Amino acid sequence: MNDVSLVSADSVPLEVVWRAFVDGFRGYVVPVELSFDEFEQVIADEKISLAASVVAVRDGVEPCGAAMLAIRTAESWCGGLGVVPSVRRTGLGRRMMLAIIKEARTRGVTRMRLECIDGNHAAWSLYEGIGFRPTRRLEIFRGAATPRPDAWKAASIWPLGDPGLVLNRFAAYHPVPPAWQTDLPVLRRQNPNGCWAGQSATLNAHVATYCFARSAISCGSSTVAPAYRNRLPITWRCSSRHWSSPTRGVT
Ligand SMILES: CC(C)(COP(=O)(O)OP(=O)(O)OC[C@H]1O[C@@H](n2cnc3c(N)ncnc32)[C@H](O)[C@@H]1OP(=O)(O)O)[C@@H](O)C(=O)NCCC(=O)NCCS
Q: Which residue has better confidence, 132 or 208?
């Protein structure tokens, strides 16, 4: 059996962390093709702490997995867990999760959240086994950042020149908090490439949609009143679940 040790992600070059992350996601439900620059951007946007994240290294040289931990005030978020295929099912995923939970607790963080896409039975079982429980289903939409030409007419939508008009009222549009990656602190860091809003007196509905594209794995967020749900230029969606665990509850 090879010797696999865990090191802090800030103790190795960022390229090593990136490699471990991308290789750890091989065969994932959705292809994870993240360039080094995009990875760097994700770390900054999502407030991933390299000091609190871990990289698994085989035989002292070969990166073979990573677990990323993001922290904002008293909350933490697992920003990715991946193990390269050749060492899966050897206990490494669980080991890395327990390591970042420990890091979170050391920093006084009492809760950790993460997402698990439907159908990822391996990860689901791992998270449940260490004490995480699903808290809600999260719908994820992906589509072109440019609406269909007829979308304006269909839903009385107009472009907003200033995304601040939406961002400053973020809480009003999100009675249920968005996912970590699409929450206000992240969106404020990104360059909006589209922002639309609309309303209809007759339908008594409001909608605000805005898109912040960073890459093919775009980061967007929208609040869509039921009356508009099938009328916006959204072409694809998948579901995942939010999981949460009191980090104190896991030893
Ligand atoms: C999910 C993943 C991180 C698990 O890592 P791992 O090192 O293989 O997991 P471990 O060996 O630590 O297993 C811990 C537990 O997870 C569950 N598990 C792991 N792989 C599993 C599989 N293929 N089928 C069913 N359960 C599995 C089991 O409950 C296991 O406990 P057990 O060994 O006592 O039965 C790994 O499969 C992976 O990197 N997949 C691709 C990336 C990914 O899906 N990341 C998670 C994103 S939410």
A: 132
